[in-house]
Design brief:
The protein is of the alpha/beta class. 56% of the residues lie in helices and 13% in strands. It has a 5-stranded antiparallel beta sheet, with helices on both faces. The chain has a 5-stranded mixed beta sheet with strand order 7-9-10-12-11. A 5-stranded parallel beta sheet has the order 14-13-15-16-17, sandwiched between helices. The longest helix is centred in the middle third of the chain and has 49 residues.
């Protein structure tokens, strides 16, 4: 590689010398008398060669200039001066053009201007050295030094302007599409040149008139074929003019005044060449600017974000001048509808705050980044992240504003759903904590009320009036405690924490809790009608489906005005659709839904409520929940007659014969709780006729069973004491408040037939007690009954799914507690009988 470099450099130098000498020969052949050439083509070859091959090729210029001088038989001193001047001319021009980063394409006006400056400065150096060396060598008289220096400078300058551009531009040929013009333009140019420089007599008016035809031809070449066409056209016209003038023809030949004629010829050539190059460069710049503008416009049109450009007509007043396709699609309008209108018309009417911010931004002429709501022709809103930026065309005053819009509707919807989910999670956390705290005191309140009721009921029918009044008050208090228990349970159902658990859900059992939540607010608006039919069980999340039912009931409630409950009603129907799907209908007799609103009722953020009363996400979230369950949510409405929302869910693949309940209600306690709970068709308030069923008849029907030894483990002393008071008449009861203490009694050898253990306790909880009993006293594991104020942690839920022990939900109803203890004692007795029979069988076998 290193060895090939000198060879390449030598070859390039030799090529430059040959081309230089050929150009010199052509120039001398067109010279006038006394070897006066109007254009020195070799100067253009020298500068073009150094620009193409590098300044390091300057020795080739020096040698070529020397050979040319020796060929003319000039004195050695004059030849040396010509060599120095020609080399300085080419080197200075090349260094200057490289310094200013002049493009070889000459497609900028500044490039042509710098080429002219470099040619003028380089030619000035050659004109200063060359004529002086000729004068010192005796070739040029002293009196003609000034004219000779002028002609020398002009000849070298024109040589650079005529030869250097074609050398730079012909190195990279381009395909020209206008093929017919490539044939017509040269033919016309040749014809005009022949007519101007071949036939007319010198100095004739016809020759001068025809010479003006060359300027539009040069402009034609520049405008249609760019700098390359301008350079070749100028070179051809110059060569024709020089050849005609040298032969005494054309408008620039003046007999007897050769220098003056050459000066006019040089000015013609210089003006033609420089004008053509400048015109071509300006055209190229304009074409490049148009291409960049077209590329920018195409890019802006194709970009995915909406782009809107506004013109500032007067301070604070904007008119849209450009919108791209993305913005038209975003706002659902055509470009013709947007151009010429104020951009503020796109903002939603309710965003007064955003309008004020926008007006302030326009007044202060600054940038703005904000999320704005844009309105579509159908009234729907889309959320956009807008970036507004001022454009200062002249560097000072703002002439335009550019706004980019990015559709963030889906992001806003997701954010709103996350906020809603966080709120539900917060309510769930609060409900779990509040429920646990309420259930503990409510449990011993219910147990103490039961004990008081039993004591008062023991007086019989002949009890004094004040005892009967006290018994009625206790029963009223029991009814209130029962209502509190139901409210707490409903809150826990609709605000359950963690990921939604899927299981078999009975929609008939899910409706009453949702009704109880809204019943108080509904009483002042409408009456409630419940129609329960056979419904297949569905596989889903009880909490999520309950949330849907509750939301539909709230919507029905809000659709009915207050003040006339006898006229309006909310009807809830359950049944089976013809397709086999489970069906729940929520119907109201409110004002109905307008036809133009009905198609968008499930759209996110769409709401007909006043600002601040709704987010427009309730029905959208309901539909999403139903879809995740594989179901459908439909709405039918007649304006003025109300609306009906129909919920359809696919039946579960496997139907269970047992009623669907919460996963926490398992084992014997689940059946007992279901047996004594209020029927779903009844309202949440207990009627007076039902209150006796909670005490005397119930207690008489619930047999305490065999007497046993019961261990109560609960960190709430009052609750433990209340359960002891309830069980004491029938069993021997021991109470402790810590799991460690219970294990210590078991380890000490105390026998227990039943262990009632709280699931959630500080320190050692019910799960830890269970695991220790498995290791240390496995016989007690089957006798363990858990008491829970609400299973909230994932660990506790997973534990309850794996064990078969019964769970009593706080507050524990007295009858359920007595029945659970009795059932456990009966199970223990049967187990002991089986063990005794097994021992007897083994003993008989041994004696036999």
């Amino acid at each position: 590689m290193a060895a090939s470099f000198p060879v390449r450099g030598l070859a390039e130098g030799l090529a430059l010398i040959v081309v230089y000498l050929v150009a010199a020969r052509v120039g001398l052949s067109l010279a006038a008398d006394d070897h006066i050439a109007p254009v020195w083509l070799s100067s253009g070859v020298a500068l073009g060669g150094l620009l193409l091959l590098g300044v390091s090729r300057w020795p080739a210029v020096f040698v070529a200039a020397g050979l040319g001088g020796l060929a003319l038989e000039l004195p050695l001193g004059a030849v040396l001066g010509i060599c120095v001047g020609s080399t300085l001319e080419a080197v200075a021009g090349a260094l200057l053009l490289r310094r200013v980063a002049c493009s070889r394409e000459l497609n900028r006006v500044r490039d042509v201007a710098w080429l002219g400056v470099g040619a003028a400065l380089g030619a000035l150096l050659a004109a200063a050295v060359g004529p002086l060396s000729l004068m010192w060598g005796g070739v040029l008289p002293r009196a003609q030094w000034g004219a000779g220096a002028w002609l020398w400078w002009m000849a070298d300058l024109l040589g650079i302007l005529l030869v250097t551009p074609p050398l730079l531009l012909l190195r990279r040929p381009r395909r020209v599409r206008a093929a017919w013009e490539m044939g017509v333009l040269p033919a016309v140019t040749v014809a005009v040149c022949v007519g101007v420089f071949a036939f007319p007599q010198p100095g004739s008016g016809i020759a001068h008139s025809l010479a003006f035809l060359l300027f539009p031809l040069s402009a034609w070449a520049a405008l249609r074929f760019g700098p390359r066409g301008a350079a070749l056209s100028s070179l051809f016209i110059a060569m024709a003019a020089i050849a005609g003038t040298a032969r005494g023809l054309g408008p620039f030949f003046t007999a007897g005044a050769l220098p003056q004629g050459l000066v006019v010829l040089q000015l013609f050539i210089g003006v033609t060449a420089l004008t053509g190059l400048l015109l071509a460069a300006a055209r190229a710049e304009r074409r490049q600017a148009a291409e960049v503008l077209e590329l920018l416009a195409t890019t802006v049109r194709a970009v995915q974000e909406g782009v809107l450009i506004c013109e500032v007509r007067e301070p604070g007043v904007l008119h849209t001048v450009f919108v791209n396709e993305a913005l038209c699609a975003l706002v659902g309008r055509r470009r013709a509808e947007l151009v010429g209108t104020p951009p503020g018309a796109l903002l939603a009417s309710g965003d007064s705050g955003e309008r004020l911010r926008l007006a302030e931004t326009l007044r202060e002429e600054r940038s703005l980044r904000a999320e704005v709501a844009l309105t579509r022709p159908d009234g729907t809103r889309v959320w956009s992240e807008m970036q507004l930026s001022p454009v200062r065309a002249d560097g000072e005053a703002v002439t335009h504003f550019v706004a980019t819009h990015r559709d963030v509707t889906a992001t806003k919807e997701l954010q709103a759903r996350l906020v809603a989910a966080e709120r539900v999670a917060a309510v769930g956390t609060l409900a779990a904590g509040v429920g646990h705290e309420i259930n503990n005191p409510l449990a011993y309140l219910a147990l103490n009320l039961e004990a008081a009721q039993r004591s008062l009921a023991a007086e019989g029918a002949e009890a004094p009036a004040r005892v009967r009044d006290a018994l009625g008050s206790v029963r009223g208090a029991q009814e209130g405690a029962e209502r509190i228990r139901l409210i707490v349970r409903d809150l826990q159902v609709f605000s359950r924490e963690g990921a939604p658990e899927r299981g078999l859900v009975d929609l008939n059992a899910l409706v009453p809790p949702a009704v109880r939540v809204v019943l108080h607010a509904l009483r002042s608006r409408a009456r409630l009608v419940e129609q329960f039919g056979p419904v297949p069980r569905v596989l889903g999340s009880e909490a999520r489906l309950g949330q849907v039912l509750l939301n539909l009931l709230v919507n029905a409630l809000q659709a009915i005005p207050e003040g006339d409950p006898g006229r309006h009603e909310v009807r809830v129907r359950t049944g089976t659709a013809p397709s086999g799907y489970a069906r729940v209908e929520v119907e109201d007799t409110g004002g109905g839904i307008p036809p133009d609103v009905l198609p968008r009722i499930f759209d996110p953020f769409f709401t007909t409520k006043a600002s601040g009363e709704g987010t427009g996400l309730g029905l959208a979230i309901c539909q999403q929940i139903i879809r995740t369950h594989g179901g459908e949510l439909h709405v039918h409405s007649v304006p003025g007659q109300g609306a009906t929302f129909t919920l359809l869910l696919p039946p579960a693949p496997v139907q269970s014969a047992e009623p669907s309940t919460s996963p926490a209600l398992r084992g014997n306690a689940r059946g007992l709780e279901a047996a004594w709970s209020v029927p779903p068709s009844l309202s949440p308030s207990l009627s007076p006729s039902l209150s006796p069923s909670l005490s005397p008849s119930l207690s008489s029907s619930a047999s305490p069973g065999p007497r046993g030894r019961v261990l109560i483990v609960d960190d709430e002393p009052r609750l433990a004491q209340s359960m002891r008071l309830l069980l004491d008449p029938y069993h021997d009861v021991v109470t402790v408040t810590r799991g460690e203490e219970a294990l210590a009694r078991v380890a000490g050898g105390e026998p227990f037939d039943v262990v009632l253990c709280d699931l959630q306790m500080p320190g050692m909880d019910g799960i830890a007690v269970y695991r220790r009993l498995v290791e240390e006293a496995p016989a007690l594991v089957s006798r363990l009954v858990f008491i829970s104020g609400g299973v909230s942690s994932p660990e506790a839920r997973a534990f309850m799914e794996t064990v078969a022990n019964p769970v009593l939900e706080k507050p524990v109803r007295p009858d359920v507690l007595l029945a659970t203890v009795a059932a456990t004692l009966e199970s223990v007795a049967r187990e002991q009988e089986r063990e005794q029979e097994a021992r007897d069988a083994v003993g008989a076998a041994r004696h036999g």
